[in-house]
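Margin note from the TA: students keep mixing up input and output lines. Inputs are the sequences; the output is the structure of the whole complex. Example:
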Amino acid sequence: MPKLPPSFYQQEDVVSLAKQLLGKSLFTYVDGKLAGGIITETEAYDGVADKACHAYGGRNTNRTATMFLNGGVTYVYLCYGIHHLLNVVSGTEGNPQAILIRAIEPTVGLEAMLERRKMEKLAPRITAGPGALAQALGIDRQLNAKDLSADEIWIEDAKNYEDEKIVATTRIGVAYAQEHALWPFRFYIKGNKYVSKPNS
DNA sequence: CGCCGGATGATCT
DNA sequence: GATCATCCGGCGC
């Protein structure tokens, strides 16, 4: 399938886009190994008005500057000193919106992913959770601010999921965002095993 | 099973 | 010096 065009990422509504990304295919080509899968879980971060967003209130620092770029590039950063987290920058230049990719369902490069995750056999935790997913795909900050039509990391078009097949719920680990932590900005494919924290 | 805490470092105050 | 958009292993039930 073709890579998604810039116009897809530059849509205004980051929440709608977070849902549209479900079912699309994410790939990396790192250390000579192709790996990837179907995006199963996402979270929207809605720019300067969103207390959970790194760029809340217009905070534009060395780290967050990537979020202010035109949509269609990656935003990768180190979390808790250990995990790299992959986001897709959306919207247009100056509007710091992004979508955290929280889980994928592996389709290619299983051997490479098992090795990177130091796992013997396949289990959902291989790519369920943003840190796990980045490790499985060999993503680190070298891939920050990369165009999503690059040779090292890209997303290909695929199916769209109807709203009935999507669960909308609150984001993970953003209690510090107070009332904004209650916004239903996390989305995942209903019934899919590759989801970090399914609701009961 | 579920809860708890340690690992670990860039980033910003 | 505090704060994290996390993960895993260990312990107790």
